[in-house]
Amino acid sequence: xxxxxxxxxxxxxxxxxxxxxxxxGGDEGEGMDYLVSLPRRVxxxxxxxLVFLFVLLFPFYWMVITTFKSNEELYDFKDFSPFWxxxxxxxxxxxxxxxxxxxxWLWNTMVVSVVATFLSLFCAVCAGYAIExxxxxxxxxxxxxxxxxxxxPPSILFIPLxxxxxxxxxxxxxxxxxxxxxxxxxxFCTWLLMGYFRSIPYELEECALIDGATRLQILVKIILPLxxxxxxxxxxxxxxLSWNEFIYALTFISSTTNKTVPVGVVTELVEGxxxxxxxxxxxxxxxxxxxAVLYSFFVEYYVSSMTGAVKE
Amino acid sequence: xxxxxxxxLQTGAGLAAxxxxxRLIGSGSAFADDMMSFKxxxxxxxRLLRWRRFVQGDETAWVANTKKxxxxxxxxxxxxxxxxxxxxxxxxxxxxxxxxxxxxxxxFDDPHQYPDKLVPLTDLAExxxxxxxxxxxxxxxxxxxxxxxxxxxxxxxxxxxxxxQSWVQxxxxxTFPTDTEGFLKCAKALKAKGHPIGMALGNAVGxxxxxxxxxxxxxxxxMVDDKNKxxxxxxxxxxxxxxxxELYETFVPGTxxxxxxxxxxxxxxxxxxxxxxxxxxxxxxKTSDDPKMKELAKDIYHVNMPQGPVGKPTELNLFTQAMxxxxxxxxxxxxxxxxxxxxxxxxxxxxxxxxxxxxxxxxAYEKNPVWTEDPKHTPYRDCVKNMLWNGYSGELGYASAAAxxxxxxxxxxxxxxxxxxxxKEAAERAAKRSxxxxxx
Lengths: 312, 440
Hints:
- The structure holds two protein chains of two kinds.
- By secondary structure, chain A is mainly alpha-helical.
- Chain A has two domains: 4-78, no CATH class; 96-311, MetI-like (MetI-like fold, Orthogonal Bundle).
- Helices cover 75% and strands 1% of the residues of chain A.
- Chain A contains 16 helices and two strands.
- By secondary structure, chain B is an alpha+beta fold.
- Chain B folds into two domains: 5-158 and 319-381, D-Maltodextrin-Binding Protein, domain 2, CATH 3.40.190; 160-316 and 406-438, D-Maltodextrin-Binding Protein, domain 2.
- Chain B is built from 18 helices and eleven strands.
- In chain B, strand 4 and strand 5 form a beta hairpin.
- The interface between A and B is medium-sized, with 26 and 42 residues.
């Protein structure tokens, strides 16, 4: 942050702000120098960061400690603090992995999410490129219509979709989800990729056209390599939405062995009004890990594509 | 679904006990001549969607009975289960789409939302009623549309007042009172001794609806009259609201956000001296490996939910019934399956394996030993007998289901307890909300 000071000082806007800053923070008060003093940094940087960290991480912490708590500790607030574990146990994890179909649900969720994501990305790339670059009559309207389709809530769509799923004989199979998830994934991915494609200069395509490249070659060899951050971002988003999806998975799947994690966990670990909290939290924790790992690997691409898309 | 040898042995023991029980009520071979039967279609296969087990014994016994049915008739039955709150949307989808499970065990007024999609079960229901001492009146309300049975009542997951005997006696009461006035006095005395009570005031489908409807009706208040006219904004409703407001002063903090599981947790943690719930709290304590919980189980007692100034039971309990859909290719097989499962030889062992979670819809099953082998089970025996129906005293249908799904009654009480509205304002608002549904 201190490195930024000399650069910023040369910018006209910052120079104009100079006196005002000096008025507040003394004669060195330029750029972000006001963060130099420790108390200010604590108040403006560290404290808000800590608050954010607490808000974001506390649910994970709660999931972790509940996963390793026994029922005795879970229900006894008088002898045990609710904020940490005194006698950790693996019982909840054992119950989750060996007394339910959790590993199968994880596998189902993975298959459905990965296939639906790739399918949606393929469709979104074709749609996004066509709308942004082919510029056919009504392309703007199509782009807008696709975006509006994203706004239709699944709770309205699931009944007509059920009719189709039953008609095609897909009920209670992974294909029921693989083919219905793109109904909300494609609009979002298309919208995101349209923004990203717009940020890629036309000149590159024009050069390729002059060199005799076809549209397909341009898409595959020029646009897609440049759009990798956008693709990753759309992919992560699509994967996360598929991973957490509940209502279609609940409606279109019946057999225990075909269920996904969000539905399976609720079905198996809630018996009437008795919630098996330890195993439920273990299920939520284990279920959130793949998404967390995915984010941690691609977070830079993700951020860059989001800012790239939004800029346009 | 897999079975261990232990499951089979346990179920065998349950079935044997049930067979003894069925003789106790005079069924079994005595009814051999009095047996109705539906001839399953050739090559019939059935799919059943039911709510997820409340206790393991329920599912094990249900599956064992189904296996017996398959051995006897050759009709295979695939059983799928969903979390109990998720069965209703799935049933609605099946009804609207015209495809799905042949038989669904739904809740409350489900059959009345799509009556034209269901196979009439009048012959079967009349046969069972005649054979097993008749259906309780509320079952006829829930099961019949006009003169036709469209659902086959399976029973209700009943709710009672669950309390700590030692604390109640310490507060000067022998048992927990079963009238609203005594209930309030006891709650105040417990609070004074440092033992608050607590009931769900959040959007709890089971517990919230059960106890608050019971109180509302107990004071003579109701959402609609016999002609489906909204009469929520009445002096009786306001009295009920004032009562609950006063009762709320004796609650442990946080009940406004309680859902179905919260009171279980609070009771087992020793945070409350009493609550209104199914038998699950007692069962959890009794079957726990923790000695402290076992000790707690000895101190847990039950009485029926309180009666209000109207002077008769006005309970609402989680009511479940079977529906056979018209799209099923095998309606006869479905009816035969239901007949088989509702017969004493199957129903009683299943009810016993479910350790009293489900109260019977047929009077003869009152004699099931499950209600007397542990006297603490006994109050749950009368839950269906004491029941009124959702949307009392109007018709069952779209409006009654939608009003419950929108938590109009629960929210009305919660608004008063939270101090957001006066009883008068809350009743007015609830009446307006109800009119939106009953106008359709």
